[in-house]
Amino acid sequence: MAADLGDLAAFVAIARSGGFREAARASNLSASSLSEALSRLEARLGIRLLNRTTRSVALTEAGARLLDRIGPALGEVEAALDVINNFRDRPAGTLRLNVPTSAARLVLPRIVPPFLAAYPDIRVEVIAEESFVDLLAAGCDAGIRYDERLEQDMIAVPIGPRVQRFATAASPSYLKRHRRPEHPRELLAHACLRIRFPSGAMPAWEFERDGEAVKVDPTGPLVVSAGAASDLAVHAAIAGSGIVALFEDWLRPYLDSGALEPVLEPWWPRFSGPFLYYPGRRYLPAPLRTFVDFIGSRES
Fold it and tell me: Taking the model in full, what pTM does it have?
């Protein structure tokens, strides 16, 4: 009753991703080919492993038992095959990264182009999303997040700036029409452009100066989802719609050009920079190991 290794891998991908489309995106296979592989596996084993609906899949008891045993085993097989990369003149393969939009915009542009130039046989795929994901279920090798969002069992290495600031800014026209705030609490009387995360949370704005920490929860005419839509809040601020709060590096080009002016700059809070994180494994895939070494060489 030997099962095809590819069919087993398809089953693991579908089960971990929670659906055929998600598994197809993570594995670079079509949803139809994954469905065919699962059907072959179930026919060979003579038992249903996944219950399907039009929108999702759910493990049967038998499927859950198989996933618990076969998932780690397939990981070891992939790691063993990847050892072959050690015999290449240049490392090869695909590196899949799951990152927030801020990292894709502010961190990776300084790293990925020189990395691709140094290792032309490695292909990098970047998935930008704000939610914290299960890397293995998403079919990713590593992710980038901030320390408060990291799981304890992950290996984390600094990537990008060690310290960042969260900035508030507004256009000259807005500040001409409204009194410039001198204390964070005065933001409650201003039009503030807010950002909401996928969880639905809209964090309060935090400020700190000379040991005094202040949190405010202002309101305003615009709320956008975190990520690429944050640019809409920036452009609304430039147009004079209100005060925006975002990474200083994100706003820096507009601050330097004069399109935006700093607001409450002495109060801008500092926080530690992002980390590249990945599951602890005995053998790292060659593209990931090469990327980790590349980051370390740039920081040393």
Answer: 0.72
